[in-house]
Amino acid sequence: MAEELKVIVFGLGNEEYGIEVDKVKTIERMSPITRVPKTPSFIKGVINLRGIVVPVLNLSGRFNLPETEATEHTRIIVVVVNDMEVGFIVDAANDVIDIDTSTIDSPPEIVGGIQAKYLDGIAKIGEDRLLIMLNLTEVLNRSELVQLEQIEV
Amino acid sequence: MDMNAYLSMFIDESNDHLQALNDNLMRLENDPEDISIVQDIFRSAHTLKGMSATMGYEDLASLTHEMENVLDLVRNNKLKMDSFIFDTLFKGLDALEKMVQDIVEGGTGKADVSAIVADLVKIVKGDYATDTSATASVTSASGKTNNSGGILDQFQSSVLKQSIESGHQVFYVKVTLTESCVLKAARSYMVFDVLENSGEIVKSEPSVEELEQEKFDRSFTVFTISQISSDEIVSKINKISEIESVEVSLLDEDSLAALSYSDTPTTKNSLSESTELTSSKAPSPVAQVDEKKNVKQGSQAAVANRTIRVDIERLDSLMNLFSEMLIDRVRLEQLASEIKRNDLSETIEHMARVSSDLQNIVLKLRMVPVDTVFNRFPRMIRDLAKSMDKKIDLVITGADTELDRTVIDEIGDPLVHLLRNSVDHGIETTSERIAAGKSETGTVHLRAFHSGNHVFIEVEEDGKGINKDKILEKAISKGIVKPEDASKLSDDEIHMLIFAAGFSTADVISDISGRGVGLDVVRTKITSLGGNVAVTSVQGKGTKFSVQLPLTLSIISAMLIKLGDEKYAVPLSSIVETAIIPKSSILSVHGNPMIKFRNAVIPLISLSNLFDSTSFNEQLEDEHEIIVIHKGEKWAAIIIDEFIGQSEIVLKSLGKYMKNISGISGATILGDGQVALIIDPNALIK
């Protein structure tokens, strides 16, 4: 008996990605972002999420993919992983689907420029639709953050 | 009955009782003759036992029960407190605390306490105490007879039984007041007074508290052990006015057994509710005074209990919701000023007033007296002093000083460190103190007080002080201080070296008598709370640690500034002055920009450079707005674009993902809903 997994589907560039729904706290429209100095460029800053300050990453930037301009479809997906609340800027978030875990294959070495360790696998939906399952723990791995510059006075 | 619903209440109340037990045991240790303290202790233990039994925590109940047996002998002057008994009771208390802690963590509260119980039983049996005859009879009270229901609980009935066995008279007294009686509580008190003058009251129905609160109809009953005859009791009670009838019956073992084991469902209640108001047998005036004091305390407790406990997380979410409302309020104010309708503006003005009152209340809700942290220290100092064989007085002042709950939660550990340090390395041994011409007993002062927007907590002792030569020597050998700089350091600067990280290694302890053990941790913690710690010391006279803490972690006064289109907040506590200076007044020292400020030359920091600002560059301006900030004695000036103004801001953390951003200590949400970052001046000054 295969297990069903409920995932949020979002678009980034030409690819479709999936995050398990129970890791997603909320999906928001773009809101004003306050830049935080001395942080890697993919950290766009922080937003006010109903009284809580949440850092926002550009997921494309995180994967060293070209960043796209914000449009009216741009969304911030706020996930909670290891007690960390982080928002991801994605090009669009438009679907919630159930996938059969048995259709998830382990990721190939290189997929669309993203290193394999950021991926949990690739899910095949229907005939020609591929969903890239993200490994959020690895995406949010702090130790991998670029060493922050020390302030020189 | 669903016990879970009562669990948190049980835990809270148990902790209260444990704390009371702790405090009172300490008091008793200082004044072992004061039987009234034993009464207090007994009452706490008794209530705790009842609560635990009701909740089904048998181990807790039975250990408390054994402790109660010992205390009972003490309060009846059958046993004298000594250090063995104190130690055993404290051990029992520790075990109880552990069990309650286990329950808090979801455990069953079970623990192996057989060693302590054996000691307690030994004390009761008198195997160890001298007065065996008095104690022997009570031993059976600790027998494992179950609470099988009845007017009397197991403990009370065994006390009465033993009294009968040892030849005392036990009476069952029923007093009925006249229908016209106005002050029923006062009359019942007078009856108690009479009975206590001639004996001892073991149990009353309804309980003493209920009698005090006049929660009874016209009659009440009392079990009493007395030396006088029943006739005498009747005549004495009849002398009190407004008494309708007095029935006194002498009980023997059989009738007592019937009462104890009759199947009335009151046991559970009486077990937890009735606090026996017993006093020593001797009808001395002292005992009477104690009694009155107890009665008074009882009524005070009733008043003090008019509070509710609230989960701190609920307060936090209240706070969050509230700050959201503030943001909406600002938005409404903006809209109203655009629409310009009088009644709308007035309503919003009123709303503004109400919400600022509300804000004050929400903030005050979070304030807790430091007492909640301080109250565990007397016991800790006692144990430390004992284990090191030193004599130490802990003097606590300002325990009612209030601090935000979040600060309170964090401050405990650093204070433990400082106090341990004072006892361990500050105060000398008794012989050393005598040799130094000091009093035998060392004193540790623990003070808390408000000062401006801060709370100070000081730990001061009259011990040997810090040996600065040794500190300096060590600092040089550890490479913390360069030898050529050593002579330039002031005494205070040398003392502060004990907070340096390198000082907390084990091999240092013996060399410099341990000063500095873990003190770097203390400093890190306190700075992370937005506080500061300083040390002053006079060799041979003592040492004082002074901890400065912000009143609250959640709201601070700040200066809001602009840097192009970005807004930042600078904590007011770090600002010395704001000014506007012409570009021409900037000096250059080794290529670094400096300015003259109050006869000193201080570095000038470009915030736009530092933060890679995209929308502001001060190079294009002829005049600079600056803020002079300080970190301790060091000053620096930062160039900003524009001042917005002073404001109270709600501190928000940047979250786990973004910790340790240099130069930024957190964030706040402004009236327009935007996030503004809070600049950390401490990081800007090296």
TrEMBL record, chain A:
<dbReference type="GO" id="GO:0005829">
    <property type="term" value="C:cytosol"/>
</dbReference>
<dbReference type="GO" id="GO:0006935">
    <property type="term" value="P:chemotaxis"/>
</dbReference>
<protein>
    <submittedName>
        <fullName>Chemotaxis protein CheW</fullName>
    </submittedName>
</protein>
<dbReference type="InterPro" id="IPR002545">
    <property type="entry name" value="CheW-lke_dom"/>
</dbReference>
<dbReference type="InterPro" id="IPR036061">
    <property type="entry name" value="CheW-like_dom_sf"/>
</dbReference>
<dbReference type="Pfam" id="PF01584">
    <property type="entry name" value="CheW"/>
</dbReference>
<dbReference type="GO" id="GO:0007165">
    <property type="term" value="P:signal transduction"/>
</dbReference>
<feature type="domain" description="CheW-like">
    <location>
        <begin position="4"/>
        <end position="145"/>
    </location>
</feature>
<dbReference type="InterPro" id="IPR039315">
    <property type="entry name" value="CheW"/>
</dbReference>
Automatic annotation (TrEMBL), chain B:
<dbReference type="InterPro" id="IPR036890">
    <property type="entry name" value="HATPase_C_sf"/>
</dbReference>
<feature type="region of interest" description="Disordered">
    <location>
        <begin position="262"/>
        <end position="293"/>
    </location>
</feature>
<dbReference type="InterPro" id="IPR036097">
    <property type="entry name" value="HisK_dim/P_sf"/>
</dbReference>
<dbReference type="InterPro" id="IPR036641">
    <property type="entry name" value="HPT_dom_sf"/>
</dbReference>
<protein>
    <recommendedName>
        <fullName>Chemotaxis protein CheA</fullName>
        <ecNumber>2.7.13.3</ecNumber>
    </recommendedName>
</protein>
<keyword id="KW-0418">Kinase</keyword>
<dbReference type="InterPro" id="IPR037052">
    <property type="entry name" value="CheA-like_P2_sf"/>
</dbReference>
<dbReference type="GO" id="GO:0006935">
    <property type="term" value="P:chemotaxis"/>
</dbReference>
<dbReference type="GO" id="GO:0000155">
    <property type="term" value="F:phosphorelay sensor kinase activity"/>
</dbReference>
<dbReference type="GO" id="GO:0005524">
    <property type="term" value="F:ATP binding"/>
</dbReference>
<dbReference type="InterPro" id="IPR010808">
    <property type="entry name" value="CheA_P2-bd"/>
</dbReference>
<dbReference type="InterPro" id="IPR004105">
    <property type="entry name" value="CheA-like_dim"/>
</dbReference>
<dbReference type="InterPro" id="IPR002545">
    <property type="entry name" value="CheW-lke_dom"/>
</dbReference>
<dbReference type="Pfam" id="PF02895">
    <property type="entry name" value="H-kinase_dim"/>
</dbReference>
<dbReference type="Pfam" id="PF07194">
    <property type="entry name" value="P2"/>
</dbReference>
<dbReference type="InterPro" id="IPR035891">
    <property type="entry name" value="CheY-binding_CheA"/>
</dbReference>
<dbReference type="InterPro" id="IPR005467">
    <property type="entry name" value="His_kinase_dom"/>
</dbReference>
<feature type="domain" description="Histidine kinase">
    <location>
        <begin position="303"/>
        <end position="553"/>
    </location>
</feature>
<keyword id="KW-0067">ATP-binding</keyword>
<dbReference type="Pfam" id="PF02518">
    <property type="entry name" value="HATPase_c"/>
</dbReference>
<dbReference type="Pfam" id="PF01627">
    <property type="entry name" value="Hpt"/>
</dbReference>
<keyword id="KW-0145">Chemotaxis</keyword>
